[in-house]
Amino acid sequence: MSSQDIPEENLPHEQGAGHGPAGHGDVARHGEAGTDPFADPGMPAHRPRIQDIDERAAKRSERAVAFLFTLSMLATVAFIASYVVFPVDKIVYIFPFGHVSALNFSLGLTLGVALFAIGAGAVHWARTLMSDEEIADERHPIAASPEVKARVAADFAAGNEESGFGRRKLIRNTMFGAMALVPLSGVVLLRDLGPLPEKKLRSTLWAKGKQLINMNTNEPLRPEDITVGSLVFASPEGLEHDAHDWQIQMGKAALMLVRIRPEDIKDKRELDWSHEGIVAFSKVCTHVGCPISLYEQQTHHVLCPCHQSTFDLSDGARVIFGPAGHPLPQLRIGVNAEGNLEALGDFEEPVGAAFWERG
Question: What is the pTM of this model?
Answer without folding.
Answer: 0.51
